[in-house]
Amino acid sequence: MLLFALGFLLVILQPSAGQFPRVCANVQSLRSKECCPPWDGDGSPCGELSNRGSCQNILLSQAPLGPQFPFSGVDDREDWPSVFYNRTCRCEGNFMGFNCGECKFGFSGLNCTERQVKIRRNIFQLTTSEKNKFLAYLNLAKNIPSQDYVIATGTYTQMNNGSNPMFRDINVYDLFVWMHYYASRDTLLGGSSVWRDIDFAHEAPGFLPWHRAFLLMWERQIQRITGDENFTIPYWDWRDAEDCEVCNDEYMGGRHPTNPNLLSPASIFSSWQVICTRSEEYNSQQALCSAASEGPIRRNPGNNDKTRTPRLPSSADVEFCLSLTQYESGSMDKMANYSFRNTLEGFADPQTAISNPAQSGLHNALHIYMNGSMSQVQGSANDPIFVIHHAFVDSIFERWLRRHRPMLEVYPAANAPIGHNRENYMVPFIPLYRNGEFFKPSRELGYDYEYLQEPALQSFQDFLTPYLQQARQIWAWLVGAAVFGGIVTAVLTGLIRACQKKKGGTSSEIQPLLIESEDYNNITYQSNF
């Protein structure tokens, strides 16, 4: 009954964000290169009659790119999404969505005017009920089809330039697995040739903003399909962990008793099937991942190559990374030195910030340590640990933003690898988001982290609250007492002065010695609080 109700909610709730909107995955939209669906609220494209937005030409960045991708016109993701659409909805104010039918991150209400900040919490601080609900939401997403989005199973050329649409349905969880694959897949050059040095979500400045947007969309999609508007992604704080603390059946799945590469049958995740893990097969066939099932989740934590990842990240690694003042540097790819992004991503040594792709630190270390589905970039989101891992990585990004308070201009505007300049649209998201839109504090996007909420200040406020409440109740008495005290003080002062006048002056010989004149300038005053 609960599953039926949740499925019904999915149908009636407004869309969130994802890949190809179902309403635009047809011959007419592809040939006209226009994706401006009507908003259900007034039936007009992009909700134009309600001043929500309008159908506009896409404005592409003209900033030069880095040298890592030496081709042009061979990949559907170039100048995203212009190969498929060059007109989409441009939403006004706080409206968002492929039809301007929802609110921007951090806003709610009928007119998207109400600000909100939701808190992401440590997964080990959740109650048993909250933790079980999170696991159930994951499983629901894996078993309910996306009503709003489909995925492409062929390139635009293979679709005969839009005359033969090639799309298919997909469940909500796998939609995000597929998007992660699509952003990081190799470029198909024809025949058996591919170009591997390309990634629209990793190894460059957009790594952190891209995954920040990805998690926000994933979080909102779970809110939609469950009707739980207060849901937030929990995070796994893996600093100084000696092993995979969430790898048990109470949380993200324990080890299989007879096959250490698989999950325990007692875990709900043991029945999950992975997709988009066979990149070499797709490359040889010059095909895209079709989201066909490719076997169970594989995970064997700790039995990884120790020469590449000898241990899990430490608190010291994180603190050193946070001390780096440059967000990006040099070539702005995995060879960048003294780059906060490259060090957090894990291509630079977490103790020196010098690039060393042969080693995997911080973010990358967790992926390699899991020794399975998580360890292959394109299919890594198949393992649900991906979500709670990246939530913590995002919290480190947030700490850096709060410590260094960078201007938007700190994010590179030009010469970054393809797709990673500040004004580039993120692949493969529709509605469209630019990289620079997510280079800002999380509270401006409607969320915060439990451990970043300045607990000392909060505790002080909690301490004062009861006294302030009592003061409000007796404020009239306090004012009266203050006035009475002032009157008494004035009367006493007057009496003292009158007495002094009667006595006359006191000679300097009998004045008490307060301080020797020669010592006066040597006094040091200190304030201690």
Automatic annotation (TrEMBL):
<keyword id="KW-0479">Metal-binding</keyword>
<dbReference type="GO" id="GO:0046872">
    <property type="term" value="F:metal ion binding"/>
</dbReference>
<keyword id="KW-0503">Monooxygenase</keyword>
<dbReference type="InterPro" id="IPR002227">
    <property type="entry name" value="Tyrosinase_Cu-bd"/>
</dbReference>
<feature type="domain" description="Tyrosinase copper-binding">
    <location>
        <begin position="383"/>
        <end position="394"/>
    </location>
</feature>
<dbReference type="GO" id="GO:0042802">
    <property type="term" value="F:identical protein binding"/>
</dbReference>
<protein>
    <recommendedName>
        <fullName>Tyrosinase</fullName>
        <ecNumber>1.14.18.1</ecNumber>
    </recommendedName>
</protein>
<dbReference type="InterPro" id="IPR050316">
    <property type="entry name" value="Tyrosinase/Hemocyanin"/>
</dbReference>
<dbReference type="GO" id="GO:0042438">
    <property type="term" value="P:melanin biosynthetic process"/>
</dbReference>
<keyword id="KW-0470">Melanin biosynthesis</keyword>
<feature type="transmembrane region" description="Helical">
    <location>
        <begin position="474"/>
        <end position="496"/>
    </location>
</feature>
<dbReference type="InterPro" id="IPR008922">
    <property type="entry name" value="Di-copper_centre_dom_sf"/>
</dbReference>
<keyword id="KW-0560">Oxidoreductase</keyword>
<dbReference type="GO" id="GO:0033162">
    <property type="term" value="C:melanosome membrane"/>
</dbReference>
<feature type="region of interest" description="Disordered">
    <location>
        <begin position="291"/>
        <end position="313"/>
    </location>
</feature>
<keyword id="KW-0186">Copper</keyword>
<keyword id="KW-0812">Transmembrane</keyword>
<keyword id="KW-1133">Transmembrane helix</keyword>
<comment type="similarity">
    <text>Belongs to the tyrosinase family.</text>
</comment>
<dbReference type="GO" id="GO:0043473">
    <property type="term" value="P:pigmentation"/>
</dbReference>
<dbReference type="Pfam" id="PF00264">
    <property type="entry name" value="Tyrosinase"/>
</dbReference>
<dbReference type="GO" id="GO:0004503">
    <property type="term" value="F:tyrosinase activity"/>
</dbReference>
<keyword id="KW-0732">Signal</keyword>
<feature type="signal peptide">
    <location>
        <begin position="1"/>
        <end position="18"/>
    </location>
</feature>
<feature type="domain" description="Tyrosinase copper-binding">
    <location>
        <begin position="202"/>
        <end position="219"/>
    </location>
</feature>
<keyword id="KW-0325">Glycoprotein</keyword>
<keyword id="KW-0472">Membrane</keyword>
